[in-house]
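Tip: read the tokens left to right.
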């Protein structure tokens, strides 16, 4: 059972963020209605189109904040139930993201300027394992969604055809379909949202894109959100630290050292984080 103070603090934080998101949605909706009114009063077609275009932007922003509010409110509901149960783990914010996308498994990957994977948040162990495979093998839907800045989907045999190593390994996890959309802001890709074994048609659903937009603009990159997704984000800083140490030891580029860590993790069916921890503690020497 969660301690009263800790649980109430988390719940209160989520409630505040949900209220702020709803307030922002209401403000954007009011702005959209104002421009729609001005469009109806416009004396020229050019002015009418301009106001309608501005109204469209406000409507889209309102939808983004409203989706964020719903995700926050869902998290509040699950946190409230958790606070009154004994021996149960704290619910993950990403579990609600997965449910909103029509699946039980979803992950968010954050990338740097050169699209290297910097952090991960997952809803469950299958999605975490799937995303770890992408990191180790250097191929998969999130990687392609970020590098190509477009949605990516694959299922069945197409998984193995598109990503031979990743697709075969994914089948071993019991996952038969994946979809990913880039997380973009101001023309820059900052990561990807991926779902595993989603319900049919989710890759084409507006909701999938709306959730990705809400995560980017209202959660990860907003002062009103929570960049750590309530503790769900795991950074790869330790892995990159270990790669730096290994690079110094072997006298090789950091990129090559990172590949050695990935190869060792994949060969041992271990995580890159685990291998990195052993290197940092001096328990493992590679090369």
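Filled-in amino acids:
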């Amino acid at each position: 059972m969660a301690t009263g103070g800790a649980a109430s603090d988390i719940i209160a934080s989520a409630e505040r963020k949900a209220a702020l998101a709803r307030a922002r949605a209401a403000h954007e909706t009011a702005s959209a209605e104002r421009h729609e009114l001005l469009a109806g009063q416009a004396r020229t077609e050019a002015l009418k189109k301009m106001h309608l275009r501005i109204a469209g932007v406000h409507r889209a922003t309102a939808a983004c904040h409203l989706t964020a509010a719903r995700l926050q409110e869902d998290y509040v509901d699950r946190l409230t139930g958790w606070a009154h149960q004994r021996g149960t783990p704290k619910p993950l914010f990403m579990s609600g993201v997965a449910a909103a996308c029509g699946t039980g498994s979803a992950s968010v990957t954050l990338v740097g300027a050169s699209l290297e994977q910097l952090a991960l948040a997952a809803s469950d162990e299958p999605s975490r394992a799937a995303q770890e495979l992408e990191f180790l093998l250097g191929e998969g839907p999130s990687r392609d969604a970020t590098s190509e800045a477009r949605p990516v989907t694959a299922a069945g045999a197409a998984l193995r055809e598109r990503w031979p190593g990743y697709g075969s390994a994914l089948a071993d996890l019991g996952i038969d379909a994946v979809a990913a959309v880039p997380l973009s802001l101001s023309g820059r890709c900052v990561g990807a949202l991926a779902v595993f074994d989603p319900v049919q048609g989710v890759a084409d659903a507006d909701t999938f894109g709306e959730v990705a937009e809400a995560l980017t603009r209202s959660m990860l990159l907003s002062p009103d959100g929570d960049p750590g997704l309530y503790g769900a984000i795991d950074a790869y800083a330790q892995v990159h630290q270990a790669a730096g140490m290994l690079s110094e030891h072997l006298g090789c580029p950091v990129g090559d050292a990172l590949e050695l860590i990935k190869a060792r993790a994949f060969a041992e069916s271990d995580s890159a984080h685990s291998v990195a921890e052993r290197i940092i503690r001096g328990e493992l020497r590679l090369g």
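The radius of gyration is 21 Å. Strands lie at 105-111, 117-122, 152-155, 177-185, 188-196, 234-235.
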